[in-house]
Amino acid sequence: MSTPPASDDRARRLGWLFLLLAPPAYGALTLAFGMDANWDLRNYHWYNGHALLTGRIGFDLLPAQMPTFYNPLLDLPFVLLADRLPARVAGFVWGGIQGVNLSLLFLLAAACLRGGSERQRILAAMALAVMGGLGGGTLGLIGTTFHDNLVSLGVLGALVVIARGLPAAPAGTGGNLLDGPALSSFGRVALAGLMAGTAMGAKNPTVIYAVGLCLAFLALPARPWRRLWLAFFFGIGVLGGLALAGGFWMAHLWIEYGNPVFPHMNHVFKSPFAAISDYVNVSFFPPSRIARILFPFVFTFQPLTVGEVPWFDARVLALFVLVPLGAVAALATRSRPRDWLTQAPATCFLLVALTVTYALWVVMFCIYRYLVPVEMLAPLALVMAVGLLPLARRLRVGLAAALLAALQLTVQPADWGRVAWADRWVTAEVPPIADPDDTMVLMAGYWAIAHVIPSFPPRMPFVRIQSNFLQPDSVGNGYLAILKDKVAAHRGPYLMLSTIPDTPGAAKAAALLGLRLDTASCRPVPNNLGETLNLCAVERAAME
What strand order describes the sheet that includes 494-499? Predict the structure, then answer.
């Protein structure tokens, strides 16, 4: 067996160096962006992880509003880091975990690129991976707790496993997913499905990627039954991953509320503890069918149509234009020999998977954060799409390089809220409480305030009487009876926690439960992530 050329050894060492250094480099970049203080972190990510860790699930009632019912699995590692380490250290580690996306993007690109020397392919794969980590949405998520750039690890990992099992030559060469041994091929796709299903179980909107990848097997250049079996075993893996990451929480929701995705899809499960509704956030849906069809032309230049904050990144729009053009060109010239820029089966698989994923996204969600894994994959996908155009190879390479450079130079990252780095990630100054073991804290208003709960004495129950899921005068939501019973059964003192502007509304909400808020008793609760809160005494109203 001959020894590879020295240049190949150097190229491989360069690849290994990138794999190892990309995550810590991304962690260091996290520190430059500041400490995450986003609304969702303050509303539920910090609380939910803390509740799972300390056994508060079921002890408190709706403290994080409707997201109280979301799977807390991904919040747990963040809380373990940020609650025990200095904030900068936790931020570096958290960003480094998210930086594994770059390593996976590199492996994927290296498996897909063709032509040129090994060193050229590795350098190109590194460039595509770096670009994948520097998109407008992706940079906005760096070091944050939204987890869209965490579940992406399962999606990208699945793609790496699949791409490395696809042939670098036409089907028939053996030893690959298309016509290799059934046991190893089906085991490989089941492993990929396990990764995608784990991401889906941890965060349900990732279902669009699991479905996109599954259906993409049907487009591979293999025998029809082979394609069906690949999709089938991938789906089996998805179900296993879903059970692994989400099964415990779905079982909890089923036992407690009779709906495994409570309160979502309650028009199907009809749990008595929520309104008969699908609980879908339609606030970002396009206003017309034409706007939905041409949506990338809208949200690229009007980002608030798909998110809460401004940003700019045109790579999804570029995909929206170039993938159909490339597909038409490929079909029109399919009888001619083609010098592909990327491996043909991998190109077909990824572009079909992204097309299906985007179609599901624009029908089901229209929230840009959920599209961030597509943003990460866009640089490689754009090279694939440009590679399908009927142009000379050198011209296609130049066009792809120019397009990617223009896209990267115009990126403007999103910012969902950050503060200067502090010693600890979350702190709150809770005033002295006379009888904490017998005191119940009511919560009101619609702002994100649950992040301060871990700073209170641990035996104090928190009950949110006003939220985006339930109000004291709700109709058709059986959860209100649970809330009223819990409040009425308490025999000790009450306190009310809200923002200062929400205090008048909190008083009205308390009155609907037969309670009176004493505004003269209010004391401030300063905290490092948001505005100062109000902690007020609440008394039982005198019976008339």
Answer: 462-464, 440-443, 494-499, 533-540, 515-525
Going by pLDDT thresholds of 50, 70 and 90, the confidence category of residue 339 is: confident
Maximum alpha-carbon separation in the chain: 96
Q: What is the pLDDT of residue 2?
A: 41
pTM: 0.95
Are the CB atoms for 459 and 254 separated by under 8 Å?
no
Instruction: Of 137, 216, 186, give the one whose Cα is nearest residue 414.
Output: 137
Residue 474 has a pLDDT of 84
Instruction: Please tell me the distance from the alpha carbon of residue 366 to that of residue 286, in angstroms, as a whole number.
Output: 8
Within a 10 A sphere around the Cβ of 459, how many other Cβ atoms?
10
Cβ-based neighbours of 504, under 8 Å, separated by 6 or more? none
75-97 per-residue burial string, b: 16 or more CB within 10 A, e: under 16: beebbebbbebebeebbbbbbbb
**Closest C-alpha among 537, 505, 532 to residue 521:** 537
Instruction: Please report the pLDDT score of residue 172 as a whole number.
Output: 41
Task: Return the DSSP state at 4.
Answer: P
Residue found under tokens 């995550």: 23
Name the strand (E) or helix (H) holding 521.
Answer: strand 515-525
Alpha-carbon span 372 to 133, nearest angstrom: 10
Token pair in block for residue 306: 């798909």
Instruction: Label residue 183 exposed, middle or buried (CB < 10 Å: 0-12, 13-18, 19+).
Output: exposed
* CA pair distance 116, 394, nearest whole angstrom: 11
Residue 170 confidence class, pLDDT cut points 50, 70, 90: very low
Position 4 pLDDT exceeds 50: no
Q: What does the H/E/C string look like for 405-467?
A: HHHHHCCECCCCCEECCCCCCCCECCCCCCCHHHCEEEECCCCCCHHHHHHCCCCCCEEECCC
Task: List Cβ neighbours of 518 (8 Å cut-off, separation of 6 or more).
Answer: 536, 537, 538, 539
Average pLDDT, rounded, for the chain: 94
User: Residue 421: pLDDT above 90?
Assistant: yes
